[in-house]
Amino acid sequence: MTEILSGDLIYVVLFAVGGLAFAVGPFVLVYFLAPRAETRQTANKTGQFIECGMAPIGDAWIRYSAVYYLYALVFVAFAVDVLYLIPVALVYNRVFAWRDLVEVAMFVGTLSLVIIYAWKKGVFEWTRRKPTAPNS
User: Fold this and answer.
1) Which of 22, 28, 117, 123 is deepest in the core (most CB within 10 A)?
2) pTM, to two decimals
3) What does the DSSP 8-state code read for residue 58?
4) Buried b (16+ CB within 10 A) or exposed e, 90-128
5) pLDDT in tens, 111-122
């Protein structure tokens, strides 16, 4: 092999070893940092739904209102608009300034319609329900 080819092969091997270290490294680190079986009190706790060191309070099955899901969807809509607006802002006024302004105005206008729709549906109103007595 020539000297140049062997030098390139060393870089490839070092890159592969580095990638393997990044892939296996977290597992090795967790193995050494994890608490051992002697440090946890696991007696009579294997039937619990959550084993995090604290005794669970209440039932694990809680019904959530649909408002939480609608609120999450509105959040996702605004997270996606950032993915669009940041690249547009970076290239704004390079070639087609008026077209960019119209596109951004249409996009922000559509998002404002989403806010108005969610507002009319009552997504932003957090009404507290009265707690019900447990069925026992």
Assistant:
1) 123
2) 0.40
3) S
4) eeeeeeeeeebeeeeeeeeeebeeeeeebeeeebeeeee
5) 888 888 878 887
